[in-house]
Amino acid sequence: MVQDLLKQFHKSVKVKPQRLIFFRDGVSEGQFSQVMDQEVNAIRIACQSLEATYKPEITYIVCGKRHHISLFPMRPEDGDRTGNVQAGTTVDQQITSAYTFDWYTQSHASLLGTSRSAHYTVLVDDSKFSADTLQQLVYNLCYTYARCTRSVSYATPAYCELLSPSSL
C-alpha cells in the first residue's frame, strides 16, 4: 500500500518525499516491537522497492486514548469552563516514560465532564525532530479533521483509514 501511495505522490508532484510521517492508533505498548519489526520494516522495503537508493526519513508515531492518566489544572482559575486543563496543554515530563519519547496532549476543550488527553509515543524518528516541533505538529493536525469545526482529540491522520490508490 505504501508503495502504491508513493508512486501516486511521485506521479502527481514529480518528486519523491524526503520525509514520511506515519500516525498509528490501536497499538498497545506490548505491540511496539512487533510494529517496529513488521510495519516499519515493510515501509522501508516499500521505499527501496521503488529505487534502491531511496531512503526517506521516517517518523512513526503511535497515539492512543486508552490510558489511565487524567490531567487537571494546578489552580481552578487555570482551567477551562468545565474544570479541565486548557486545550493545547502538553505534558512531556514527570508522568512520561524514562525510556521512550512520549507525551500527553490535551488538544480539545471538553464539552462536558473530564477530558481525556491523547498519549503519543514516537517509535522511529529518522528526521530527529525536536520534541517541541513534533508536539506542535501533532496539535496543529488536531485542527485538520474535515468533519469538525473544532479540534479533535488526537492527530487527524490517525483517524484516517489508509486506502490504496486503486480504491480511490
Description:
The protein is an alpha+beta fold and 168 residues long. It has a single domain, classed as Nucleotidyltransferase, domain 5. It is 25% helix and 19% strand. The chain contains three helices and five strands, in the order H-E-H-E-E-E-E-H. It has helices at residues 2-13, 32-50, 131-141, and strands spanning 19-25, 57-64, 89-91, 101-106, 118-125. Strands 1-2-5-4-3 form a five-stranded mixed β-sheet. One of its GO terms (molecular function) is nucleic acid binding. Residues 1-160 form the Piwi domain. This is Piwi domain-containing protein. InterPro entries: Piwi, RNaseH-like_sf, RNaseH_sf.
What tags apply to this protein structure?
single chain, 168 residues, alpha+beta, Nucleotidyltransferase, domain 5, 5-stranded mixed β-sheet, 5 strands, elongated, disordered C terminus
